[in-house]
Specification:
Blueprint lengths: L3 E4 L6 E3 L14 E4 L37 E6 L2 E7 L9 H15 L3 E5 L3 H13 L2 E7 L4 H9 L3 E5 L3 H10 L5 E2 L7 H5 L1 H11 L4 E5 L4 H15 L8 E7 L4 H7 L23 H10 L3 E5 L1 H13 L6 H4 L1 H10 L8 E6 L7 H7 L3
Parallel strand pairs: 5-13, 6-7, 6-9, 7-8, 10-11, 10-13, 11-12
Antiparallel strand pairs: 1-2, 1-3, 4-5
Helix pairs in contact: 1-2, 2-3, 6-7, 7-9, 8-9
């Protein structure tokens, strides 16, 4: 624990890692700083194979449901070697389980007894499950229009579900206004979620080496930041010759990362939110997301709803049933190949972040069966 600390990237203020705060006094999100090293544990499978590389108090046993160690499905598309990493095969059906395991493990060690979160669905379901396993009370604020499958999961784990009329931002306002004695454990602000996602990079590296490129959906940025930091740390240890190019994908209904990266508004927008998992209008770590993608010589792409529908169908034909948010990566992959940014022989890591079983209602509506 002593080797890690919380630090504000805006004002430079530092805090002990075990101080129960979720943001700096200046209002910025916090990062975890310390000595990160790639030291896999022999004979251990899953995310906690990298326990020595993660911020966790010494002697503390993780709250784990078997997250990580997700399989990879390999295929070739126009000569490009595509590696779909099946993050939807984590215990609650999404990549959020890595972050929930690390976050709840720390919060339990701190003695936190109640958490309050806001979520469009996956993080709410995931944190509810891990909080239940840890004996921590959980209250989840979610937009009323969130998929029924995700809301059902949240209630099944024993969390209190508060449905909020309005969008994601209103759910956040209600959660903070009604925080009470609870700890605000939102994945948008928690420094543990992107840190946990470094293990996706570590797992891929151990099995396949470094990819030439990574394509991932971007909402709050937790997965693309985790992948960026993971590969950056491997590079810093001399284990990589170069960093993979990062390609973030946003839906045309919410474009803050695209606008910040390109310095201009998009040429097209859409009103209907099909990919609810990336519908984050004000990502707290926007600056870090943009900096990481630029450092990798990557890009941010926008996809339309009709392209997302094609993505759901195309991935299903490969035997991969994913929710619309996860399917955003497929049209982005095709476009990068068509424009020559990915070419024959390139190796590409594409995490598929959420199960289609969570969005049955929505998928039934958008696909003509």
């Amino acid at each position: 624990m002593a080797s890690f600390r919380l630090k504000c990237p805006s004002c430079g203020r530092e805090y002990p890692l075990n101080e129960p705060i979720w943001s700096c006094v200046c209002g910025s999100p916090l990062l975890i700083e310390g000595h990160f090293s790639f030291k896999p544990l022999e004979g251990v499978k899953g995310m906690w194979r990298y326990k020595l590389s993660l911020p966790l108090p010494e002697g503390v046993e993780p709250v784990s449901l078997g997250e990580g160690g997700t399989p990879v499905v390999k295929t070739r598309i126009n000569g490009v070697n595509v590696h779909f990493k099946l993050e939807f095969m984590n215990p609650t059906g999404s990549f959020k389980d890595r972050g929930s395991s690390l976050a709840i493990s720390n919060l339990k060690a701190w003695g936190v007894r109640e958490i309050v979160i806001d979520s469009s669905g996956n993080a709410g379901a995931s944190l509810s499950a891990y909080a239940s396993a840890a004996g921590i009370k959980c209250r989840v604020y979610t937009p009323a229009r969130a998929p029924i499958g995700k809301k059902t999961q949240i209630k099944a784990y024993g969390a209190e579900l508060v449905e909020v009329e309005g969008g994601r931002e209103e759910a956040t306002r209600r959660a903070l206004r009604e925080l009470g004695k609870g700890y605000y454990a939102s994945h948008l602000w928690s420094p543990f979620f992107p840190e946990a996602n470094t293990t996706i990079a570590y797992e891929f590296f151990e099995e396949y080496g470094a990819p030439d490129a990574v394509i991932a959906p971007v909402g709050s940025g937790g997965i693309i930041l985790g992948l960026a930091w993971g590969f950056q740390r491997l590079y810093a240890q001399g284990l990589l010759d170069s960093l993979p190019r990062l390609y973030g994908v946003q839906a045309a209904s919410n474009t803050p990362v695209y606008e910040a990266f390109h310095g201009r508004p998009p040429e097209f927008r859409e009103d209907e939110v099909l990919a609810d998992g990336v519908a984050v209008k004000s990502p707290p770590r926007l600056r870090e997301i943009v900096e990481s993608i630029k450092l990798s010589r990557g890009d941010v792409l926008l996809v339309r709803n009709d392209e997302i529908v094609v993505g759901v169908k195309s991935l299903a034909k490969l035997g991969l049933f994913v929710e619309p948010t996860s399917a955003t990566v497929y049209p982005a992959l095709k476009r990068l190949i068509e424009t020559g940014k990915l070419s024959g022989g390139d190796s590409v890591l594409v995490p598929l972040t959420g199960s289609g079983l969570k969005a049955i209602e929505k998928i039934s509506r958008i696909l003509p069966f």
